[in-house]
Every structure is written in structure tokens, then in C-alpha cells.
Amino acid sequence: MGFLRGKTCHLKTRTDLFYWNREIIMPEKRKDIILVVDFGSQYVQLIARRIRENKVFSVVEPHSVSLERVREIAPSGIILSGGPSSVYGRGAPVFDVRVLQEGIPVLGICYGMQYIASVLGGKVSRGGRREYGRADVKFVTENPLFKGLSPKSITWMSHGDKITRLPRGFGRVAKSGNTSCAAFRKVSGSIYGVQFHPEVEHTVEGAKILKNFIFGICGCKRSWTPESFVAAKIKEIREKVKDKEVILGLSGGVDSSVCAVLLSRALGKKLHCIFVDNGLLRKGERERVEKVFKRNIKLDLTVVDAEKLFLKELKGVEDPEEKRKVIGRTFIKVFERAAKKIKNAEFLAQGTLYPDVIESQPFYGGPSKTIKSHHNVGGLPQKMGLALVEPLRDLFKDEVRVVGEELGLPGDMVNRQPFPGPGLAVRIVGEVTRKRLNVLREADKVIMDIARKRGIYGKTWQMFGVYLPVQSVGVMGDDRTYEDAIALRAVTSTDGMTADWAKIPYDVLSEISNRVINEVDGVNRVVFDITSKPPGTIEWE
Ligand code: XMP
Q1: 112-152 residue pLDDT tens
Q2: DSSP category for residue 99
């Protein structure tokens, strides 16, 4: 019982011990869910997505998840993520060891593996040599986790500590040049650990390993499909909303559009959408939203024309944060006024996604430093006394797109690039005026046309123009010009958190420059922004 020692042990009495030794979640009660326990890994969302790519639902919980919560989720398998700490370090994240006795298959990755080893009586020590990056690993392919793998292949490692003594009842099932225990398993039972990261692409057979765990070891079925999601959500929304009315702020972006169609399938005329035209939109955006949602899908859509009010409030405002705050405040004022006209509304729908839910979990601690005040309707429900409906809160962005397609939304709508809530205002450096907005709108249209025509739109996370009130001298025909500049911003990214500037071919850059200068009045120079994030941000303000 060596593993009952130490601060990670939560058992206090004999009754606890008796209780602990019983297998509580019987296999037949387990759902087709894999629980991912977060020890602070940068890959935790990637692990969750890898599982879903196999059509199996996954949930992420912080390492402090209680045994009761695990039982409530009733997963068929648990993955303990990696993390930046050392298991023997001060304040290292801990996990309720009783969960390991529930009879549920467990896979520990990196820190997760070391954690299993240390709480079950093994030993973890600082390795002589750290192992980062590529490592050749030899697998014992007779064991279920590595079934069907080549005897040797490339993995990706990132660790300083290593397991120097296995817990009793465990055996090694893989080794690398630097680590004699690159993977282990409990000889009788389904607890596994891998020192490398099967979730990253550099681990050549990582996808096979995860499949072996999910299907071979945990026995999951492929039940997480867009159809099953839509059917289950419609039922859930109806049960929650009953005969009440629901309001949704429709922006025309992917999340609120998918949310609108899903809710209208569930609630019909009980859904009321409000679209605020703040005058900061791209060319033709309002007309497009009206066409798709009012005429084609026949939603109850109120379009509020608030351009004048927004421009009035933004007059003279140059500071980026101040701009964002003015826009946020004005939006709430306009939205509330429109919402009051909808009688008996008790719910406000929001397109919150799973990454937002994960990032607001306690593991991530208090609010991080504000780089930009994002514009959203987060404060609205409390203020308006409305309950929330968030039908997309289980989904990652790519899943929202698939669900959108399943619901019949046009492809160009579900595959749109993100557009910020404060709109073109954060793409105009300095004061926002109607004239500058018009110039930027025209430039944006040219850039979008070329991006689509040249097949770059789908390959970049975002591509857009930024208005720079920096005048420079030029010559057009025989005339001198002295006009403003447009900066082209084009980035690649997977989640918007980090980004690289996109390597747009020279001939495309050339076409953009030519057409913007020739077709947009008031611009005589185009520059290309080659800053990654960090240190830059994607939007200029
Ligand atoms: P930054 O500029 O912070 O942008 O690197 C990261 C991503 O977020 C988008 N963005 C916003 N989205 N409300 C939004 O809904 C906002 O206030 C906002 N500001 C930035 C930005 O377009 C990029 O995709």
C-alpha cells in the first residue's frame, strides 16, 4: 500500500478504503465518452479533438475533477494529459487516485504517465538527459495499445523527468534510446502510460495508438456524428425552453449562424433574431444576412440600422481600447432596446464554443492580462434577466462548420474566415469616419475577390486590409498623389491564439497591390504585414 502515502492520497477512513476498492461504474453503464484530464498541457484541446475525429465524444476536465463528477460523466476511458510540472515539484497538479480504481481504462501521456507511476508506488526522477523532439521508439506490439504498429517508429517527446522504477504489477512495453521506459501497462488491467505524445502529428503512429485505446481497449462506438448531435440538441433545447421565447444576436459569422439554424429547427417561430448593422460591416454583409436568413431560411429577423449612432459615439475616439469599449457599450444599448420589443422572452442564445468553456475552467486560474477587450454579449443575460441557451458549447470550431453543413447552410457561409465583433473599426488605425470606412470596404472587397479567385481564402485563417492614415507621395499618370495606405494582413493559424504571416505568392501580392490602387479612391500605396503572433496580434487594434 505504498501508494497510499503522500499528499495525493484522498483516503481517510476504512470505509473510504472499502468504498474505493469497489468498481463503481460498471462497464455497461459507461457512455461512449473519453474523459481528458488536464494537467496543464498545451495539447489538451488537441487530444480532445483527436478523439472526436474518431467520432467519439470527449470532455476535458481540470485535474481537480472529483470522483463524483467522473462517475456522472461515466466515461469509457480516461486520458491523463501531459503538463509542464514535475510530479515531485512544489504545487504539482494532483488528481484523485481513487479514479484509477474505478476499473475504467486509463492512458497517461507524459506527465500523466509519470503521475500514475508516482501515485501507484513507482519512482520518477530527473533524467540525465532531457528528451525533446523526435525519438525512435521500439514497441512491444503484442500489447493492445500498440497492436498493428511497426516494431519501431518515430515519436515526439518533450520531457526532462523519467520513470526509474515501475509500480508493482506494471511492465514496460516500449523503449527509446534515452528512455528505457517509453511506455508501460498494468499487467492485469487497463492502465497504460506513454512518455511520448501520440496526439501530435510528428508521432508517426500516434493516431493508431489513440484508436487502439479508444476502440480496442475502451470499447467505444462511433456515435459522435453531426446527425446524432443535431438530433440530441434539438431534443435538449425543446426540453429546456418549453413554450418560452428565445432571442439571438445574429452577427452573420459561423457560430451565430449555425446557432440560429439549429434553434429555429428546434423552436420554429419562438426564435427571434436581432442583427445590428453598426455601420462597421464589410461591403454587402447586411444584404447577405437578410437574404440568407430572412428570405431563404425565413427566420424572424429584426435588422436594426444603427450606423449613425455608432459613428456618433466613435467620433474623435482614437485609442484602440476606448474604441472597443464604445462599440461594446453601444451594441448592448441597441440590442437591449430591440430585445425589449420581443414579448415574453426568457432566454438569450449564444454561440459559445467548447474552447471558451475549457478556458474558463478553474485550472486556468484567474483572468489573464487583457490584451484586447473582446466584444461579445457576455454581460447581457444577467443584465437583461435572461437565462442562457448555448447549444454549441460542446463543439470545437471545425465541428460547428460540419454541423452547419448538416443543417444545410451554404458552404461559403460555414467556411467563412473569422470577423471581429467591432468590425472594420479595429482595422482602421486612428479615428473611424464614414469616409475611411468606405475606402476600407472597397479595398476589403478587392482583397476578398482575389483571395477567393486565387484559392488563398481557404488556406489562410484570415486575410484582410487595414487602413493606415499615413499619407505618402505617389505618381499616377502624370499627376502627383498624396494619399493614405492599405496594409495587407494575411495569417495562417489553427485557433487564432498564435499565427504566422502567410507566404502569399508574389504574383498574388502584385495583383492585390495593382487592383487596390487602381480601383480604390484615396489609396496610393499597399504594404504587406510580415509580423507573426506573438509578438503582433492578428488585428491591428
Ligand atoms: P487578435 O487580434 O487578438 O485576434 O490576435 C485573434 C482572433 O480574434 C478575432 N478578434 C475578435 N473576435 N470579437 C471577436 O469576436 C473581438 O472583439 C475580436 N477581436 C479580435 C480576430 O479577428 C482573430 O481571429
Answers
A1: 999 999 999 999 998 777 788 899 999 999 999 999 999 99
A2: G
Given the CA of residue 536, which atom of ligand 1 is nearest to it? 5
Instruction: Return phi, psi of residue 432, to 5°.
Output: -95, 120
**Is any ligand 1 atom within 6 A of the Cβ of residue 538?**
yes
- Kindly give the distance from the C-alpha atom of residue 538 to the centroid of ligand 1, in angstroms, as a whole number: 7
Question: What separation in Å is there between the alpha carbon of 267 and the centre of ligand 1?
Answer: 31
Secondary structure (DSSP) of 19-84: HHHS--S-GGG--SEEEEEESS-TTHHHHHHHHHHTT-EEEEEETT--HHHHHHH--SEEEE---S
pTM reported for the whole predicted model: 0.85
Grid coordinates belonging to 32: 461512449
Q: Is the CB of 249 under 6 A from ligand 1?
A: no
Residues designated catalytic: 110, 197, 199
CA 530 to chain centre: 25
pLDDT tens-place string over residues 379-414: 566 677 899 999 999 999 999 999 999 999 999 899
- Count of other CB atoms within 10 angstroms of residue 411: 10
Across the strands, what pairs with 162?
125
Residue 325 beta carbon below 6 angstroms from any ligand 1 atom: no
